[in-house]
Write a structure and sequence with these properties.
With about 290 residues, this protein is an alpha/beta fold. About 35% of the residues lie in helices and about 15% in strands. It has eleven helices and twelve strands. The strands form three sheets. It has a five-stranded parallel sheet, sandwiched between helices. It has a five-stranded mixed sheet with strand order 7-6-8-10-12, with helices on both faces. The radius of gyration is 20 Å and the shape is elongated.
């Protein structure tokens, strides 16, 4: 039996709908998924009891899917079965995103569950390599994705984000905890560098480009430029938190007058694929599902 441990967003419903038998849906309190009613709602302080309940129900496989922010532990709300897990949970909440997920995955595995990735439970969420849109990437996009690869490698070492925006071979925006759609929407406001930002040099390099951002973003030159680049972090555990795009991403890209989206084949989930492709064709955007770099 499969149980989904879910957070917010549309991914949990997509995974649930792909199953031949309805899975058990367990939602972290405060992080309900879109369009999917949980069978169980739990708190991080009752994770031990949830694990025991899942075993009693005959669950053998676990799939983690959906967005959450790392919650704080309320010591007063801990139950007896979760108390022994507190040191591990504390380590998880203090680690980076990937480190936290590794700890949570290990806890479920040590409890006897097989942890499966969302893309394993619903393989159709991963589009095949190629360009499925009517529009195709321009020649300069090859240089853009080289810059994207380099930035994602840096972000991966810092365990920060899975996406960036490239214009003219330079990274002009990078994903943070607010997510991809917010990053793209923020392109309409010139970003400010911070001395504490390890990537502020990127913004400094892009300053001359962003000085003309009004023309680029408004599309007054008649030509879209720049791409959203999205891929898993190098060395990421792909059983959870695989990058995702959907109709909202396309809408944000279209509003910001970018030319298209580049994602890694086998490494980025595309939700509502028919809607995504139709919206991209209407907007004249390209989608390049690029083979992973060797």
């Amino acid at each position: 039996m499969l149980a989904l441990i879910v957070g917010q967003g549309a991914l949990p419903r997509a995974v649930a709908e792909a199953q031949p038998t309805a899975p058990l849906v367990c939602a972290l309190q405060g992080y309900l998924p879109d369009g999917l009613t949980p069978d169980i709602t739990f708190r991080i302080e009752t994770l031990g009891s949830l694990i025991a309940d899942l075993r009693a129900r005959g669950v053998t496989r676990i799939c983690l899917c959906g967005r959450i922010r790392r919650p704080r532990i309320d010591v007063a709300a801990l139950d007896d079965l979760t108390l022994p897990l507190v040191p591990r949970l504390r380590d998880a909440l203090q680690a980076g995103d990937d480190g936290a997920l590794r700890v949570v995955i290990a806890l479920f595995q040590e409890s006897g569950f097989e942890v499966v990735a969302a893309q394993e439970a619903a393989p159709s969420l991963l589009p095949p390599a190629g360009v499925p849109t009517a529009a195709e990437p321009a020649e300069e996009t090859a240089a853009d994705v080289v810059a994207g690869d380099a930035m994602l490698a840096q972000m991966g070492r810092a365990d920060l984000g899975q996406a960036c925006v490239i214009l003219g071979g330079k990274v002009i925006a990078q994903e943070d905890d607010s997510g991809t759609d917010a990053m793209v929407a923020g392109l309409r406001t010139r970003p400010q560098s911070s001395a504490s930002d390890p990537f502020n040099w990127v913004m400094d390099q892009a300053g001359d480009l962003l000085g003309d951002a009004a023309d680029w973003l408004s599309g007054t030159d008649g030509r879209r430029r720049g791409v959203l680049f999205k891929a898993p972090k190098p060395g990421q555990d792909r059983r959870a938190d695989l990058p995702t795009i959907g109709p909202g991403t396309v809408a944000a890209v279209a509003r910001s007058q970018l030319a298209g989206i580049v994602i890694e084949a086998g490494g980025v989930i595309v939700l509502d694929q028919s809607q995504v492709l139709a919206a991209m064709d209407r907007a004249g955007l390209f989608l390049w599902v690029r083979e992973a770099r060797a």
